# Entry
Amino acid sequence: MNLFKNILFLLSIAVTSTLASEAPVCPGMDAGAKAYQESDFERAIDEWRTCVDKDIADADLFYNLGNAYFRNGNLGLSIFYYKKALRLRANDDDIQHNLKYAQAMTRDKVDEDEEENPLLATLFKAHHAIPLRTQLWILLALFWVIAAVGIAQKVSLSEKIKNACIGTIFGLAAIFCVIGASAAYKIFVLETDITGVVTAKDADVTSAPNDKSQTLNTLSEGTSFQVLSVQGNFAEIQLGEKIKGFVKLSDVGIVD
# Structure
């Protein structure tokens, strides 16, 4: 069974179609895809990184980099780029699958034994089922539909139609509130929730943002954490309830 799962995973990390018309134009896209197909993962990484260096933020580009880093044996950087891809395309099953697979290979396990609440899991899945941009368009459409129904209710002379309009407005308003709350939370997370990943072989968590401070913990490659602030060459981080301190920015990647 494990062999079968591994085969499925390797098939799933085939390079995605970066040649799609909507993808940003960058010569490294094509060159990286060609190198990846030839199993030259280091060259693929170098080519795709030229696009990253041009500040191109594209989910397929980050996903492909995650795959290339994984195949090249760089677990931390693969998780980092999977997370960046997922931030742009939160409901993508392939990205989610590969990220979970890579994270299962990390040594640091935090709150692994907590049982997932089925109701919360369902709500979380529904929350991410529709992209934020689509939600905003739906909210705009609902607003105008509610306004139109409201006008119809005011001008109608039929009591039956008035009552039907009122019921329709209440129903649409309820849907508007649910989608609005989901969209508002996504915007809040995008603005405030910053995560990081250990991209070096390990990273020391120190008591202060300097090289002379006491080492409190050591995190292994691929471990994810919450970033509280950035102070000089250090990031203040928190992992679970017990681990809090500072790590060198050179040892981690911050998903923004």
Summary: The CA atoms of residues 86 and 93 lie 10 Å apart.
